[in-house]
Amino acid sequence: MLSLHSNGERMPLDIGSRLLLNDGNSMPQFGLGVYLTSEGKEIRRAMEMAIAAGYRHFDTAAMYGNEAGVGAAIRESGIPREAFFVTTKLWNDDHGYDSALKAFEKSNNKLDLEYIDLYLIHWPVPGLRRDSWRALEKLKGSGMAKSIGVSNYILPHLQEMNEYSTFKPSVNQIELHPFNFGSRKATIDYCFHHSIVPEAYSPLTRGKKFSDPVVAAAAKSLGKTPSQILIRWSIQHGFSCIPKSSDPDRIKLNADVFGWEIPVEWMQKLDELDTGLAVSWNPGKE
User: Fold this and answer.
1) Which of 26, 148, 161, 221 has the highest local Cβ count within 10 Å?
2) Would residue 138 count as lying in a domain?
């Protein structure tokens, strides 16, 4: 859909809605994850296709090794920098106050986008979370990171932050899909109660549950693909959602999740599919 500046100028296509963050900033609810998309031709092709399809939210990380490709595609798109929302993350080896600041500078230089919209602690590394978060708060104060947050934090990690944080995380990026919804509900509820946006990574279960009878039946009933059903499920729960793909056709299909809804009866059936599935890291039970 086309949006308008206050001066009436038409802006480029931007898929879906935006979510208000607890620091006053906002982020597109839907985006593209680029984990395991290799630097070079693959990341450039995926980025170019996604930008053409209307994606404006991109999720990378130092560990992914493709920050430079993400930044280059955005710079060369011809679209104003402010139209994009870019996330990157602090890797485990770089925890600690000084190390985190240096790691941010390295990521920022690779992206070469003037600033980073959202900087996340990638994993809750024991013993260093406090110092790392202090560094992120400094980055937010400087404006180099517009918003800050965490990833793979479950309820105890979030509660611990009350002891040392000045700013609440704006986002908590965790593996989320119907097959771990119940297992993660305590964390999800805490996030919503504290105005922290839950962001779903691996929302497609890496394809492991496309043939699940409920997912398949919902897709057939609504004339959608299993991936669209799983993404739309996240959207309707109010999560941010960042499915990964480097395939041009799937990038387009995954974006077709607005302008329609999953009916309540199907949402209820999907909500009941929890098996504690973790296709990434299993943080254990809350």
Assistant:
1) 148
2) yes
Residues annotated as part of the active site: 64
Q: Look at residue 124 and tell me if it is in a domain.
A: yes
In whole angstroms, give the CA distance from residue 196 to residue 199.
9
What is the 3-state secondary structure of 131-169? HHHHHHHHHHHHCCEEEEEEECCCHHHHHHHCCCCCCCC
Question: Against a cut of 0.85, is the pTM above it?
Answer: yes
Kindly report the CATH number assigned to the domain that includes residue 47.
Answer: 3.20.20.100
Let me know if residue 216 belongs to a domain: no
183-189, long-range: CB within 8 Å, 24+ apart, which pairs?
183/274, 183/276, 183/285, 183/286, 184/154, 184/286, 186/154, 186/155, 186/286, 187/153, 187/154, 187/155, 187/158, 187/286
**Amino acid, res. 185:** K
Q: What confidence tens digit (pLDDT) does each residue in 240-257 have?
A: 999 999 899 999 999 999
> Within 10 Å of residue 88's Cβ, how many Cβ atoms?
29
What total of structural domains would you count in the chain?
1
Which residue segment(s) compose the domain that 52 sits in?
Answer: 18-208+238-246
> Residue 200 falls within a domain, yes or no?
yes
Each residue of 130-143: pLDDT tens digit?
Answer: 999 999 999 999 99
